[in-house]
């Protein structure tokens, strides 16, 4: 482990073990392992297994350094370590030839570490950990101006063939129109672009907080997600899937679609799939054989889509309509809106 500078953690997916959330690892066991790896000066890599049999097999084969999951204490060929007392205990396992690692873990582990990492996780997942200023959801109702960035929404909406007001609604949900917003996970700017995503899209790190560049990159990413979900033929349905993937990750949404298909629901209907997005926080579902990426905080993703839909509907009362294409805008604006609806946000 120490020789190659990496520690490999084997575990199962779950809220207490490990899950990916906006590109950041979470779960009590993962966060403890992360602290331990930092203490001994190595990087941490996670390998998620399907069941305990795979955990034990891969540990024996040398595919990992430790198992971060409570295994039955019936094996004689592995060493159980990292054990606290009573309800405060956690249990890891290493190979019997890794006695030095086990001893190091036992010396390092303290029961109070569990409460510490849970507090850190709770804070990271709360809105308090998002550094941003909150602006009004609409700049000027009477003139139909949503934000200071409407010109960019209008300019780049055609890249992803979306209504510019949908982009505005999504932007408000992401950053409340704060170009300097930064999340605990490192997402930056108006559309909360992750640094890794920025690299993929060709957006220099120096431009992450520039409004026009950030919005342009987000539209490029949305276009990629639309291509990924091109099998969802209905334009409005596809929009909802893309919004969900922008927030929760396309791989989790594909898992929910697979569950919908398995249970006889329509995998191309968001109304059906959203039910299984929510169920991906339940062991019986995130451990299902058709699920490839495990646990998901589905309630946040469903709420994200719902709130953007509502705000988009409200923004469509703004002066300046759109050219509809199967229910979706392509970003154009007619010369004159026939009427303006009154609404509250």
Automatic annotation (TrEMBL):
Belongs to the transglycosylase Slt family. Gene3D superfamilies: 1.10.530.10, Periplasmic binding protein-like II. CDD domains: MLTF-like. Residues 162-265 form the Transglycosylase SLT domain. This is Transglycosylase SLT domain-containing protein. InterPro entries: Lysozyme-like_dom_sf (IPR023346), Transglycosylase_SLT_dom_1 (IPR008258).
